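Quick one, tokens below:
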């Protein structure tokens, strides 16, 4: 019984504390080193981490910045998107993606997602393009790549820029039909990511990065992220102040070394869930995008329509099993973005998913007995 309570107490959506404890010495000494140097802004660790991340991802250039939302904004500024331009973006994603589009005076044009993989529905792209369309922001939701081959071909045919929001999928690998493999964030014109603590590569505060293979774009991005200046106090363009601070970079260098191990651990958890929910009448497990590996930022299932998700969630909470709904309301029905959508039934799959998805605990330190307990509780509900 004591063991049992212990298990329950420790179950979290993401267990950052245990993860930290397992790398504590390395992290503490890296932090201490920054403190000793007191180069809190633009210290050598920032360049070092950027170089390591470039090596890891295979991106041509990596420009660190303050967070994943800034990364998206800087990407669109660097691509010269102008007020009134239209940008295609999924209706089912985290708000940041559409927020910066609206903030820059661009027009978000929503597109629905596929019911099984939750990714942008490429079959609808054609119907979204007008003579004002300048780009597509695709989101590698929950940890696997969108159908990049189709998106890139479509974009090049219509002369559109592609931004990959890789905040949830760092390390995922996409294989093109010619066998070429590329990492999430390195395939489009620009890729963006977030190092928010709970992301797969998370720091201990805010952080983000921008990827590109284009040297001109890389320079532009660098300048925009630094107040539009190349030379201190000479401002060639309007920029922003968006930096990854040195402490975070030092922590990220350590965590990057473990990223593959972490992805493996997440996949193991996902596989065990998959097995448990195989052919379940009420739970549909997440489908895999063909050609992409999955890094399982989230393990998200669909419940059948007959299930009251709120009751299920409360039941799980009572059993000590946390769960989350990413996301409860699609973007076209959010108050702030009604002018770009606003109609129920407009994006039926996104709306349906918002009512039916639920994410279960998944993280790098999940113990088998914890997961056994979680699975048992979930399955018991439907007995
Ligand atoms: C987390 C996240 C962001 C934003 O990242 P921040 O670092 O919190 O600004 C953007 N897009 C997606 C899909 C995310 O999951």
């Amino acid at each position: 019984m004591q063991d049992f309570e212990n298990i329950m107490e420790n179950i979290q959506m993401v267990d950052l504390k245990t993860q930290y404890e397992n790398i504590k010495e390395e992290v503490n000494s890296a932090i201490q080193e920054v403190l000793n140097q007191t180069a809190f802004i633009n210290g050598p660790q920032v360049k070092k981490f950027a170089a390591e991340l470039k090596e890891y991802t295979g991106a041509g250039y990596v420009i660190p910045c303050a967070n994943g939302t800034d990364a998206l904004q800087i990407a669109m500024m660097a691509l010269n998107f102008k007020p009134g331009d239209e940008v295609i973006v999924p209706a089912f994603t985290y708000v940041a993606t559409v927020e910066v589009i609206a903030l820059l005076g661009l027009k978000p044009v929503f597109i629905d997602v596929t019911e099984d993989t939750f990714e942008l529905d490429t079959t609808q792209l054609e119907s979204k393009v007008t003579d004002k369309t300048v780009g597509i922001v695709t989101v590698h939701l929950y940890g696997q790549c969108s159908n990049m081959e189709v998106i890139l071909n479509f974009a090049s045919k219509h002369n559109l820029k592609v931004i990959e929001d890789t905040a949830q999928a760092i390390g995922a690998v996409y294989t093109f039909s010619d066998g070429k493999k590329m990492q999430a964030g390195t395939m489009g014109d620009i890729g963006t990511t977030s190092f928010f603590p709970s992301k797969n590569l998370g720091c201990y505060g805010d952080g983000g990065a921008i990827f590109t293979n284009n040297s001109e774009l890389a320079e532009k991005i660098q300048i925009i992220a630094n107040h539009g200046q190349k030379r201190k106090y000479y401002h060639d363009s309007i920029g922003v102040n968006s930096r990854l601070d040195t402490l975070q970079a030092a922590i990220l260098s350590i965590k990057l070394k473990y990223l593959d191990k972490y992805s493996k651990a997440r996949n193991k958890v996902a596989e065990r869930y998959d097995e448990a929910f195989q052919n379940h009448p009420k739970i549909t497990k997440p489908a895999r995008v063909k050609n992409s590996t999955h890094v399982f930022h989230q393990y998200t299932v669909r419940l059948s329509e007959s299930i009251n998700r709120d009751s299920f969630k409360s039941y799980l909470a009572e059993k000590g099993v946390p769960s989350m709904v990413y996301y409860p309301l699609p973007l076209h029905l959010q108050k702030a973005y009604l002018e770009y959508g606003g109609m129920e039934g407009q994006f039926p799959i996104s709306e349906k998913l918002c009512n039916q998805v639920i994410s279960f605990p998944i993280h790098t330190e999940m113990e088998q007995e914890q997961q056994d307990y979680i699975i048992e509780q979930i399955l018991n509900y439907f007995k």
